[in-house]
Design goal:
31% strand; EC 3.5.1.118; GATase_2_dom; 289 residues; EgtC-like; alpha+beta; six-stranded antiparallel β-sheet
Length: 289
């Protein structure tokens, strides 16, 4: 299963260090399928997206993914990819950039020919082969149709996909220089959120979050003194404040860390895919096996 991680300290820019691939914690984890790519997305001081990503096709690529990546931003998105569609290529590695926004996705969508017809001229935003980048283009199309409203764009795109495409999962994180959105739809995979006070539950601790699967680790000394909102595919520490988003729930973290949460889709997709509906490669991408 692809791993998602997002963080907002907006409006403050904070320094953080990421390790996108660590050694597995156990022999059981070592038996799992190896990832196909890693990526980290941030924003420069002027709001320009900065993406550091790499497909993992060789030993030297894995070493790249294991190196510490230090950066400064108000929002962050990290992704570890298990490919379901598209080969091992930088074009197919998350996060993707469109119109100054960053996007990462976990899940599988079918009916890509139908989706491409719906995209029309927005197909030109797609440079790779993935369902994820195509869905991002649909989100961008819907944002434009709603006058730049990102919440409405995500809602419109997800409604359309739920009605017209075979859907296994649409878990996503979308970031701008000072805002973050996250969606869990339907309840196929977990997506957790933590509203972390400055210093965490003890009031004086830096951030040091690590995936139990040995995939993504994030550390920030600055968050000993700054609050943050964190989104992740799994609980990444023992903080009791982690909450799983509900099926169909959209989270928005605005400037100043204002948080809104609401369920935008109450019903499952019209054509809900199961693991048995997926091909071997896509099935492996959703289970990590």
């Amino acid at each position: 299963m692809c791993r998602l991680f997002g963080l907002s300290a907006s409006p403050d820019r904070v320094r953080a260090t990421f390790w996108l691939l660590e050694a597995p914690d156990s022999l059981a984890e070592q038996s799992r399928r190896e990832p196909d790519g890693t990526g980290l997305g941030t924003f420069g001081p002027g709001g320009t997206p900065v993406v550091d990503k790499q497909p993992l096709a060789a030993y030297q690529d894995r070493r790249f993914a294991e190196e510490a990546k230090e950066c400064e931003s108000a929002t962050f998105v990290a992704h570890v990819r298990y490919a379901s569609t598209g080969g091992l290529d930088t074009r197919n590695t998350h996060p993707f950039v469109q119109r100054g926004r960053l996007f990462a996705h976990n899940g599988v969508l079918g009916g890509l020919d139908t989706l491409e017809r719906e995209l029309g001229d927005y197909r030109d935003l797609v440079h790779g082969d993935t369902d994820s980048e195509r869905f991002f283009a649909l989100v961008t199309q819907q944002i434009d149709r709603h006058g730049g409203d990102v919440t409405a764009g995500i809602t419109g795109a997800t409604y359309w996909a739920a009605e017209h495409l075979p859907v296994y999962a649409i878990n996503l994180i979308l970031t701008t220089p000072d805002e973050l959105w996250a969606l869990r739809y339907p309840g196929t995979h977990d997506l957790f959120v933590l509203q972390r006070a400055a210093g965490g539950p003890h009031g004086d601790r830096h951030l040091d979050h690590a995936s139990t699967a040995g995939r993504i680790r994030a550390r920030s000394g600055a968050l000993a003194g700054h609050p943050a909102v964190i989104v992740a595919s799994e609980r990444m520490d023992e903080d009791p404040g982690w909450q799983n988003l509900r099926s169909g729930e959209l989270l928005h973290v605005g400037p100043g860390l204002t948080v809104t949460r609401r369920v935008i889709l109450h019903d499952p997709p019209r054509h809900q895919l199961t693991l048995d509906d997926l091909g071997a490669h896509a099935k492996a991408s959703q289970t990590g096996q």
